[in-house]
Write a structure and sequence with these properties.
The protein is of the alpha/beta class. It is built from 25 helices and 18 strands. The strands form three sheets. A nine-stranded mixed β-sheet has the order 3-4-5-2-1-6-7-11-12, with helices on both faces. The protein has a six-stranded parallel β-sheet with strand order 15-14-13-16-17-18, with helices on both faces. Strands 8-10-9 form a three-stranded antiparallel β-sheet. The protein binds adenosine-5'-diphosphate (ADP). Adenosine-5'-diphosphate (ADP) binds next to helix 9, helix 20 and helix 21. The site of adenosine-5'-diphosphate has 18 residues, from helix 9, helix 20 and helix 21.
């Protein structure tokens, strides 16, 4: 698959998409009416208020608006709630495919020429003034801010929580590529959901900026309210791109979705780098332009992972003289493995960033490659990652993914803040997915009932005396699954059951399917993404395996502890920071750990857990209750982020 994708030119791909979008626009004009009729009337007064700036959008808008809405209305039809099922798999091959793509694309440089027909097409469609396109270094939209005539304020969901802290108020814009419950492929989605909500309690004004993917479930699409639109140039494409802003407010957090059907029509957020590089160049630039457009200038812009890593670079170059240019930036690394690497001509073409940022101190990596994350790390005011141990590990060759030198150079602004979990979403006392709800006072009676229900659901032998080992994970090389595969036969002793939930590399999926067949009634391989089932496994299992090769933070061990399930983890990254090893002599600790990446050591840790479970249940139960009582909430971490924001904005 990687090979196939490597052969397509991203520039062509986007043009082709653009073409098809246009076709749709003319084919289905009727759908346009509700979403767009409003803005047309709103932009006209804008032009009167500020003739010079607003004349542009108005001129462009009129013809284009009739066309765009059709495209906008499309997602409603296309939306597939299955979005969550696959993205995790897709993220990995994208990175693995890089080397092949790089050479192919590099060879096809005449991209700028190919862009021209597309640009012309856009011009005829949108009747865009040519003069505007002649200024590539000064993005039009950054300053086009017809704020006065924003549509009516969106309908809010429940009332915002009252801030519970006395530190000064700060405004923060989160920019990232996924966020529960709209779209999630892993831990990033959880963080983008939970941290902003907690920051509201820490006296922060938070806005989360996300792509409006077509895969966002319809029930959320329906709640979004049109906030405005403008046009923006992008890189060397010579075209002007539509940027719509759709808004949804929930629990005091404002979510602004960047709308553009050329980039966000896919069913999943991550497709392949060929598509993703243009998409996230567009997104990063559009997010900043949208802040200017809305005239909402945050104190801090907090961006996440490579998909938003160009934000600090844009901010200090193309946007430095625009209002948003005064914001400070924080870039959080959720997983250093994914960096957004492509050849320099392609990233220059799509980003439009000036030549000087493509040097070895910033975006350039090796001779012909540019690395979006590397650039972001260089330009961000602060870098965080999601645990202390990982912050240290990534400065070493073993975990640094070839950025260790760069990170060591910038270590003065790097720190680790461990993730938490959202207690509203993860609460065994109220969790609607569970067979029986429980809390710390009745966990010992009720957890076994959840175990029996889980065994029944999965077709396992129903016996609460068996030790149920859970594994909930993306099935990729990062997660230590080769260790698990190597020892399954040794842990299947007749008293132990294994439940795997995950999707990912075929190699692992097939191995787990094989084991399900080999150990009927004792091994269950659920090769799927199923949020509710994940909750039931956390509740019904006795232990949860997280033997990762590396783990920036890891959320599954936190979920597990909160549900009274003891984690068995490798001592790396956030796993090391959050799971204290059980000490058989004094009974302290939260779970079972091992250090080196070695199947024998994993087996040993599982055997220690078994011994404790089968021979010392009283002590086991103590650990269950201790884990449930452990504070793994976001409150503490959010305070640390707030301190960081205050450090950056000491006025
Ligand atoms: P990563 O971000 O590397 O995938 P994390 O441990 O940080 O790993 O976060 C994983 C999150 O995704 C957890 O909330 C976990 O419950 C959830 N998850 C992972 N795989 C599945 C799955 N197959 N079905 C449901 N939830 C899953």
């Amino acid at each position: 698959m990687a090979q196939k994708k490597a052969q397509s030119n991203p520039k062509k791909t986007a043009e082709a998409k653009g073409a098809s979008t246009s076709a749709k626009k003319t084919a289905e004009p009727v759908k346009a009416v509700p979403a767009k009729s409003e803005p047309v009337t709103k932009t006209e007064p804008a032009a009167k208020a500020e003739p010079e700036k607003k004349a542009e959008p108005a001129a462009k808008a009129e013809p284009a608006k009739k066309a765009e809405p059709a495209a906008k209305a499309e997602p409603a039809k296309k939306t597939e709630p299955a979005a969550k099922a696959e993205p995790a798999e897709k993220a990995e091959p994208a990175v693995e495919a890089e080397p092949a793509k790089k050479t192919k694309i590099a060879a096809k440089k005449p991209a700028a020429k190919k862009a021209k027909p597309a640009a012309k097409k856009a011009e005829t469609e949108a009747k865009k003034p040519v003069a505007e396109e002649a200024k590539p270094a000064e993005p039009v939209a950054e300053v086009a801010a017809p704020v006065a005539e924003q549509p009516a304020a969106p309908v809010a969901e429940p009332a915002p929580a009252q801030p519970q802290c006395d530190t000064p108020r700060r405004s923060v814009a989160f920019i990232g590529s996924e966020c529960h419950p709209f779209v999630k492929t892993g831990g990033l989605g959880d963080v983008m959901y939970a941290l902003p909500r907690e920051l509201v309690n820490q006296n922060c004004d938070v806005r989360v900026i996300l792509p409006r993917y077509a895969c966002i479930p319809q029930k959320y699409q329906d709640k979004m309210v049109y906030r405005g639109e403008f046009y923006m140039d992008l890189g060397e494409t010579g075209r002007s791109y539509y940027v719509g802003i759709m808004e949804y407010i929930c629990d005091g957090v404002v979510y602004d979705f960047i709308d553009n059907q050329e980039f966000f029509t896919e069913g999943n957020p991550y497709v392949s780098l060929v598509d993703d590089i243009p998409k996230y160049c567009f997104f990063s630039k559009a997010a900043l332009a949208a802040l200017n457009y809305m005239n909402w200038i945050p104190d801090v812009i907090h961006c996440h992972d490579w998909q938003a890593a160009l934000v600090p670079v844009y901010l200090r170059t193309l946007f430095k003289d625009s209002p948003v240019g005064r914001a400070k930036t924080v870039l959080t690394i959720h997983n250093l493995r994914f960096q957004g690497i492509y050849n320099i001509p392609t990233i220059r073409y799509w980003s439009g960033l000036p030549a000087e940022v493509f040097n070895m101190g910033a975006l350039q990596q090796a001779w012909r490659d540019a690395n979006m994350l590397k650039g972001g790390l260089a330009y961000a005011d602060r870098i965080t990652t999601v645990s202390n141990t990982y912050a240290w590990e990534i400065q070493t060759p073993e975990y640094g993914e070839q950025l260790e030198d760069h990170l060591r150079y910038h270590s003065y602004k790097l720190r680790g803040i461990v993730n938490g979990i959202d207690y509203g979403m993860w609460n065994p006392a109220t969790d609607p997915a569970l067979a029986v709800n429980y809390d710390i006072t009745n966990v010992l009676e009720r957890k076994p009932q959840n175990k029996l229900a889980l065994q029944k659901e999965l077709g396992l032998v129903e016996d609460e005396g068996k030790l149920v080992v859970g594994l909930i994970s993306r099935l990729t090389n990062q997660k230590g699954l080769d260790l698990v595969n190597a020892i399954v036969p040794q842990i299947m002793d007749g008293n132990t059951q294994v439940v795997v939930l995950g999707t990912g590399d075929k190699e692992y999926e097939d191995t787990f399917r094989y084991y399900e067949n080999a150990y009927k009634g004792m091994f269950s391989a659920c090769i799927q993404y199923d949020e509710a089932r994940a909750h039931r496994i956390y509740a019904g299992a006795d232990v949860l395996l997280v033997p990762s090769r590396f783990e920036p933070c890891g959320l599954t061990q936190l979920n597990a502890m909160h549900y009274g399930t003891l984690p068995i983890v490798r001592e790396t990254g956030g796993l090391k920071d959050t799971v204290q090893p059980y000490n058989v002599f004094n009974g302290e600790g939260n779970g079972f750990t091992f250090d080196r990446y070695d199947a024998g050591l994993l087996l040993d840790a599982i055997n220690r857990a078994k011994t404790e479970y089968f021979t010392s249940r009283y002590h086991w139960d103590e650990v269950v209750q201790r884990d449930m009582a452990k504070d793994v909430s976001w409150a503490n971490s959010a305070r640390q982020y707030k301190d960081l924001y205050l450090e950056l904005t000491p006025w």
